[in-house]
Write the structure tokens for this entry.
Amino acid sequence: MNDKTPPADKKGRWVRLFVDYAGLAAFLVTLMVTGSAIVASWAVVGGSIAALIVGYVFEKRIAPLPLATAVVGVIFGAATIYFHDERIIKMKLTILDTGIGIALLTALARGKNPLRALIGAELHLPDAVVRTLTIRYALMFFVLAAANEVIWRTQTTRIWGLYKFPGTAILIFVFFMSQMPLILKHAPKDEPAAK
């Protein structure tokens, strides 16, 4: 066999993908088929709950990020269904992106470095660079929130769905790549190996 990945690792990878993306995938597929954000809200609620159950059954835990995503998805999805108003699910991205931007700037103003927790210990950057990146990421989230408002108010529901995913993921990746020159400029140089 050429594939050297142990079966348990493969299974774990599929479980992780399902947990991370089931709600979003269910929402997007239903939205593309029906063109209705209200019908798709049923799918996001069901997909999010299924993702949490699968995560708990196979991983014996509920990871914080999928839990937060599921809770937000269920709240906005249920509100969309209850009020029969697709604007609610469409505004979710605006509220989340604005909230993330505010949280980043608020933490920074309080002397915290929230991006450092996300970057982790693998990438050693000076505090000033991390602060600059935090401000840039906060501004990026504000721009994404504004873009979501423009798109859901001016485009079809299907176009908005494609902006939601994969559109925002692509934009975040492009933004990350645009920050690489700053990151690489200040990243510590590897020391030559001792002979």
Remarks:
- The first helix runs from residue 7 to 34.
